[in-house]
Amino acid sequence: MTAANGSGSFLRRYRWVLVGLAVAVLVVLLLAPRASSDPDGLDRVAGDQGFEEKAGDSRFEWLADYSIPGVDNETASVILAGLVGVAIVFVLPMALGAYLRSSRKARS
Fold it and tell me: CA-CA distance, 93 to 89, in Å (whole number)?
């Protein structure tokens, strides 16, 4: 059997996924601490147009301002929040893929 048929080592089958994960982690570690703290997007427009005080609180505020509650070091907090985001974006598609593969095998 070949890797295309589902066999082969984990590293061989998922090497590009692991490379992508490593690149994402490096980006978080190297670039997230250097990100601008200036408002962007809708926050910037709201400030420029003078209606930022009318904004309500977000209904789903998790890791607000890209920080981890309880971590006092701002740089470490931003890096940890970025790593949590990378983990979520990595784990959810992998879990969905595993579920779909298992359900497809069960139907066969």
Answer: 7
Instruction: Show me where the domains of the chain are located.
Output: 3-107
Residue with the two structure tokens 């595993």 = 98
pLDDT at 93 > cutoff 70: yes
CB contact burial 78-101 (16+ within 10 A = b; e otherwise): bbbbbbeebeeebeeeeeeeeeee
Per-residue pLDDT tens for 13-69?
Answer: 889 989 999 999 999 999 988 887 776 777 788 888 888 888 777 777 777 778 888
DSSP string, 43-68: HHHHHHHT-GGGPPPPSS-SSGGG--
Closest C-alpha among 90, 105, 73 to residue 18: 90
Calpha distance 99→81 (Å, rounded): 27
